[in-house]
Amino acid sequence: MNFKDPKIQITIGLAVLTVALLALFWKFSWQPSAQRIAQLRADESRLRTELDQVRAAVAGLQKLEQDYKILEKKWAQAQKLLPTDKEIPVLLKQITNAGIEAQVRFSSFKPGPAANATALSQSIPVTITVIGTYQQIAMFLKNMGDLPRIVISSGLRLVPSSEDPNRHIKADLTATTYVFKSGGAPSAQPTTTRRVQ
Questions:
Q1: d(CA 184, CA 84)
Q2: Most buried among 64, 103, 121, 194, by the most CB within 10 A?
Q3: Plot region of 140 (φ>0 → left; ψ -120 to 50 → alpha; else → beta)
Q4: What are phi and psi of 127, to 5 degrees?
Q5: pLDDT at site 70
Q6: Neighbours of 35 (CB within 10 A)
Q7: What's the number of CA atoms in the CB half-sphere (13 Å) around residue 148?
Q8: What pLDDT is attached to residue 166?
Q9: What is the pLDDT at residue 197?
């Protein structure tokens, strides 16, 4: 091979130029592009992982929101069962109406002082004496049990009524209701006795 031949020199020059252009292309175009593609793929993988985590968190948030709504409903139901001490007059009226509906006659109705039942609630006993037939007294107890508030009857004592011992009986009992504490301190409601003649 004769290196002085212009055709060979042109061929070698073109070959060197081609290799130089390929080296420059690889150095300044291909290699940075490959690195950029690798970086973008790593970023895509990281972002997909973060997106999956966010989707899982959103799904968990929806579950938490549903649980929160269920707890709100349960809390509302609990509030219906346990009035605040400010609602006690309404509850006492409901107990009185339960007796009126059962056609019993109240001989005495005495709310007692509030006592701590739990950290959040207080119990309020109401001593009641009613006169009526056995069926009327049973209906009165049922009506109290059907009230939307918690009212627990205890200490029931039945004796013949002095007015009509053959038909009527006198029932002494304690109806205990529970209320939410207002401000955490026992309520200072005065006890009143109401006698019905």
A1: 11
A2: 121
A3: alpha
A4: -85, 125
A5: 92
A6: 10
A7: 11
A8: 73
A9: 41
For residue 185, is it within any domain? no
* The residue type at 143: N
Does 66 fall in a domain? yes
Give backbone dihedrals phi and psi of 113, rounded to 5 degrees, phi first: -70, 150
What pLDDT, on a 0 to 100 scale, did the predictor assign at position 194? Answer: 44
The position carrying tokens 């002082």 is: 113
**Cα atoms in the 13 Å half-sphere on the side-chain side of 47:** 6
Q: 184 in the Ramachandran plot: left (φ > 0), alpha (ψ -120 to 50) or beta?
A: left
Tokens 């009226």 belong to residue? 93
Q: Which amino acid is at 66?
A: Q
Same domain, 69 and 149: no
Residue 2 counted as domain residue: yes
Asked if 175 and 110 sit in the same domain, the reply is yes
Residue 186 confidence (pLDDT): 41
- How many domains in the chain? 2
Q: Which residues of the chain have pLDDT under 50?
A: 184-197
| pTM of the complete model | 0.55
pLDDT of residue 1: 65
**Containing domain of residue 62, as a range?**
1-80
Scan for tokens 């209320």, then name that residue: 179
Q: Check: CB of residue 87 under 8 Å from CB of residue 93.
A: no
Three-state SS letters, 65-101: HHHHHHHHHHHHHHHHHCCEHHHHHHHHHHHHHHHHH
Token output for 24 = 């420059």
Residue 195 domain flag: no
